[in-house]
Amino acid sequence: MLLSKIAGVVLLSLASLAVAGGNGPVVGQPAPNFIGRTLEDDSYRLKGDKGQPKVINFFALTCKPCRQEMPELAKLEQQYPGVKFISVNTQDDKPEAVAKFIKSLPGAPSHVVLTSGGMQETFHYLGLPHTILLDSDNVVLMNLVGFTPANMKLLHKALAEMDKH
Asked: Which of 8, 31, 37, 109 has its CA 20 to 30 A from that of 49?
């Protein structure tokens, strides 16, 4: 019990560092819901997807840093099989275009969700890529703005802490 409280404090501290400027959903609060379709054409609702921690990565086909970040997230997904990694296309793109984009990358998270837009207004991020870490109840633990080595280190550290408990 004490260790989980300590881990929570560490994660919230890291999250506070990662959201300078208040960019993204509020740390410590449930993530907003979103609905979309997977590349396999199954419906997806964040609200109904509980029970394991998640890394949600918002991307667009035209975002060059997104193209760099997704393979790094795919590597983390391999390291942390207990965490679900979901890449969310923030634009109203055709599934074929998103599938082609994903296929062109050296790696990408296993789960890709297509939306009809509105993610920026719902999740309050200022730019892409934007990545959030959620606990198993979809409470926001961390916001990461942009693709940087420092952000990847923060995410890796937070995932390692979660993995210990």
From this structure: 8
pLDDT tens profile 150-161 = 999 999 999 999
Q: pTM to 2 decimals?
A: 0.85
Spatial CB neighbours of 76, under 8 Å, sequence gap ≥ 6: 55, 83, 85, 152, 155, 156, 159
pLDDT tens, residue by residue, 16-50: 334 334 489 999 999 999 999 999 999 999 999 99
* 8 Å CB contact between 30 and 47: no
Low-confidence ranges of the chain (pLDDT < 50): 1-22
Which tokens go with 46?
């964040």
Q: Are 154 and 161 in contact (CB under 8 A)?
A: no
- CA–CA separation, 6 and 10 (whole Å): 6
d(CA 162, CA 67): 26
CA distance 3 to 26: 24
Answer left, alpha or beta for residue 115, where phi above 0 means left and psi between -120 and 50 means alpha.
Answer: beta
- Give residue 72's pLDDT: 97
Tally the residues of the chain.
165
Half-sphere exposure of 37 (CA within 13 A, CB side): 13
The domain over range 2-164 is classified in CATH as 3.30.70.100: no
